[in-house]
Design a protein that fits this description.
Shape: globular
Structural class: alpha+beta
Strand order of the largest sheet: 3-4-5-6-7-8-9
Order of helices and strands: HEEHEEHEEEEEEHEHEHEEH
Strand content: 25-35%
Low-confidence stretches: none
Amino acid sequence: MTQSLPPHETFLSFAETLADVSRAMLREASEQVPQVEIKPDASFVTTTDKAVETALRDRIIDAYPSHGILGEEFENVNTDAEFVWVLDPIDGTAPFIAGIPIYGTLIGLAWNGAPFLGVIDQPVTADRWTGVAHSFALHNNRPVHVRPCASLETAFVTCSNSDFMSNSERPRFDRIRKRAQYVQYGGSCFAYGAMASGRTDMAVDSGLDPFDVYACAAVILGAGGQFGDWTGAPLSFEMAGHVLAAGDKARFDEAISILGSAHA
């Protein structure tokens, strides 16, 4: 039975205000060549990543000083709080650097550690998905829903980057890849919005952190989809990096049986 959720209206309105801030900053930054650094984990970070997250954090602290913040670029704060904002200022920093317009900002709010509400904002294309887990999802303020999928063989699957998978994970993903009708790579958070809108059927990813997926999870769960790790377990702040999402529960369960064991 789904746990009764707290009121969302004020929180979601505030999250959209944050998304307006990040959209304006990213649109302005997209007109210039970004200043790029390499983080210790070999991933990219730009001055814009840091500036956007700082702006969002400042507004959250002012509005909700008792809430926690879990973000990509700076130290986490009060993550054992009832409400924790989960921020990725630029999901798809590599596309942002390359000028490929599939990057976006992810703004999630966790309640008791679970995805509660989320915003997926695409500044260049002006697409915005919002959602509250197990309640509703919207694309540019119009309701959206995931679609049914008759079989894995007819599934349109997305994967951010299979290079993020370990040597033990890649063979498990390959079993999905070989059976699926098609796999689209490199969509960043846009791919999760597309699933919520009923345009794709499944997403399989690895090497991700909570800030990469909490907003996406809330939107997809709100659109009637399924979201968890490769065993089907719900997301947590201690997640191991495996992500599985699907619009159709039968396909979600089927994928778990394939991904959940190294010898399936």
